[in-house]
Amino acid sequence: MKHFKINTDSAGLTPQEVAENFDDLHPRLDPAQAVVDAARCIYCYDAPCMNACPTRIDIPKFIHQIRSGNVEGSAKTILSQNIMGGTCARACPTEVLCEEVCVVHHTEGAPVKIGELQRFAVDHLMENGGAHPFQRAPESGKRLAVIGAGPAGLSFAHRAAMLGHDIVVYDAKPKPGGLNEYGLAAYKMADDFAQREVAFLLSIGGIRIEYGKSLGVELTLDKLRSDFDGVFVGVGLTQSHNLGVEGENLGGVRDALDFIEEIRQAKDKSKVVIGDNVIVIGGGNTAIDAAAQAKCLGARNVTLVYRRGPETMSATGWEQDLAAANGVTMRFWAAPKGFIGAGKVEKIALSETRIVDGKLAMTGVGDELPADLVLKAIGQKIDHDALGGLKIERGKISVDAQYRTSVPGVYAGGDCIAAGEDLTVQAVEDGKQAAISADAFLRAETKGAAQ
């Protein structure tokens, strides 16, 4: 587990120390290490690791290919199911997915390093260059629009392009990648990997991206439906929840994703302003990313405040351990009552929490902590007003088993639908399956018209 350089005095961290903190969280395996670990796989029949992977990568096959020296073939096995296998190898919580159910994990006490082996293979293929590993089918003459250049939208675009369609992707941001580019900790996506992966994905051809265009502003579903043969909505969750407490509008009270985006886009991360006392509110991986990166920047005291116990945090145990090992204080069973300051936050008032009659309640008993910066990582919600009449259920876009929305010809996937965990790997699977569904519909429609 990586240990960061930590600020222990008023001098702070040097620019070099900050840069080192944001080096790759998981240095990749060298070829000898990869072969040794691949040899630990016992190639289970009906392998549970495959069942635990949302994209159904043939894990025993790609590991066997590494062991036998066919690293390029291994990468193709991975990418045929998950075109963003490089990002998923870096950021996917493999410890609670494929590696958690690895048979070797239970017989030897440690799983096969599936995530690291996946990265080894994909990085090898991408860095060797050459032609894109997949070819496009004959051109169908159909055009599809994609709203959102995040994992779901890019996965849809790539699979649809493979199937012979022409794709135009629209995104509100100036760069593609979605949360892969703007929302993951910088040490997970070192060396501008998100952009390198997008460039690799686009090299299949047939995909064009237009930036600075968002649904409900420059784009409408009605116009896209009239201009294209199908539309995929992969807008993610773009609006942050509010705490609804006094002082929430004070300066220095920020959304954690905005903070993470600032770090990701900073050319010199030592220039990102950080105070001595940082409070992070939340219990997911975004909260951990924000807290750990505050430490990376040189914050002396970082406290993560979570309203329940550690066992209910959505952040994985590994992520929690990473933060704790690097000096982040975990404050459980506590919630903010309000923020105190004259124009800018200076303190946070906390209340203890507990379960009363099956529900979480604030006791009113608590204390105050100094705070130069408060980062809210309490989740996001969909922007209902921009969705042009799409049916919403339980706060997300409603889709059927074929990823079809309530509007004909419009599909959706990623965090904006309720298909499983809000993970990159699930978004990739959503986009892939939606593209397959849209392709089947378009081909059936074309065949019907020809008869």
Which helices and strands occur, and which strands form pairs?
Elements: H1 15-21, H2 31-38, H3 48-52, H4 59-67, H5 71-81, H6 85-91, H7 103-108, H8 114-128, E1 143-147, H9 151-162, E2 166-171, H10 179-182, H11 193-202, E3 207-211, H12 221-227, E4 230-233, E5 239-240, E6 253-255, H13 256-265, E7 277-281, H14 285-297, E8 301-305, H15 317-325, E9 329-331, E10 334-340, E11 347-356, E12 359-362, E13 368-370, E14 373-376, E15 380-381, E16 392-393, E17 396-397, E18 410-412, H16 424-450
Parallel strand pairs: 1-2, 1-4, 2-3, 4-18, 6-14, 7-8, 7-14, 8-9
Antiparallel strand pairs: 5-15, 10-11, 11-12, 11-13, 16-17
Helix pairs in contact: 2-4, 2-8, 4-5, 4-8, 5-8, 6-8, 9-16, 13-14, 14-15
Describe this structure in words.
The chain is of the alpha/beta class and 451 residues long. It has three domains: 104 residues, Orthogonal Bundle (Fumarate Reductase Iron-sulfur Protein, Chain B, domain 2); 165 residues, 3-Layer(bba) Sandwich (FAD/NAD(P)-binding domain); 137 residues, FAD/NAD(P)-binding domain (3-Layer(bba) Sandwich), CATH 3.50.50. The protein is built from 16 helices and 18 strands. The strands form five sheets. It has a five-stranded parallel beta sheet with strand order 3-2-1-4-18, with helices on both faces. Helix 9 runs parallel beside helix 16. The longest helix has 27 residues. The chain is globular, with a radius of gyration of 23 Å. It starts with 14 loop residues before the first helix and ends with a helix. The model has no long low-confidence stretch (mean pLDDT 95).
